[in-house]
Design goal:
With about 250 residues, the chain is an alpha/beta fold. It is about 20% helix and about 25% strand. A hairpin with a 7-residue loop joins strand 8 (about 125-130) and strand 9 (about 140-145).
Length: about 250
């Protein structure tokens, strides 16, 4: 399993970058998690739009799905240019019916996931945890049968993460606030809260993502190190994690 950070900012992207978007790859299969603002431009640095096998959306805030529309246009254009009619599945929840409806276009099809069931997408098995966020949002535990990657999506701290992330090889957390702040009302976590989950869940590595645009982001790592002794990475575009990659 290989995970690539495509976009990692919360709310809006810095110039030339993107909000939440991650590539998960295994055995030639490419799954995209979330398609935030600016994601498609960055995504094409790693994958052709026709080489994406599936997309899954945690929730329907713009910084996680704004580029779904332009991805649909891109598939439409290439279908015409290359005489291709392959339909791209885009998985999402149905708790916002209107947003789910817009996942379907000429060459994309919205497919509802049941958060109470295990979802199989290519070589991956995905289980879900409803997060503490102002709109329905689901974190994901993704396994290829050997490795485990947990994505919190957007969430305030909740103890359910301890069990959900247990023994994961990598935990990618919402880190929209510094340790001195309180992100609970906004539905986001601090550096310390993400690190506490990593420690309690006994994960191997932690990636801090969904970052704030202000302050010194390296401070987030320093704060997290007070609570988690494993490897901690600050998300940046192009960051690659894999089980056997020592240069993450």
């Amino acid at each position: 399993m290989k995970v690539t950070v495509v976009g990692h900012w919360g709310g809006y992207p810095r110039e030339g970058e993107a909000t939440s978007c991650y590539l998960v790859e295994k055995d030639g299969f490419t799954l995209v998690i979330d398609m935030g603002s600016g994601a498609l431009s960055q995504l094409q640095m790693y994958k052709h739009v026709l080489d994406i096998d599936a997309v899954i959306i945690s929730h329907y805030h713009h910084d996680h799905m704004a580029d779904i529309g332009v991805l649909q246009y891109a598939r439409f254009v290439h279908a015409y240019l290359e005489d291709m009619n392959k339909i791209l599945p885009i998985y999402g929840h149905q708790e916002d019916a209107e947003s789910f409806y817009h996942l379907t276009h000429d060459f994309t099809k919205g497919i509802a996931y049941d958060p109470d069931e295990v979802l199989k997408v290519g070589p991956f098995m995905i289980t879900f945890l409803k997060t503490n966020h102002p709109v329905p949002c689901y974190g994901m535990r993704i396994t290829d049968g050997t490795n485990i990657f947990v994505y919190t999506a957007d969430t305030a701290f909740q103890k359910e993460w301890f069990e959900f992330a247990k023994d994961a090889d990598m935990l990618l957390t919402d880190c929209n606030f510094y340790a001195y702040q309180d992100g609970s009302e906004a539905g986001h976590m601090t550096s310390v809260e993400g690190a506490m989950i990593a420690a309690q869940a006994n994960v191997d590595e932690l990636i801090l993502s969904h970052l704030p645009q202000y302050g010194d982001q390296e401070q987030l790592v320093i704060e997290a190190q007070q609570y988690f002794q494993g490897k901690i990475h600050l998300a940046h575009k192009g960051l690659i994690w894999s089980k056997n990659d020592e240069n993450c």
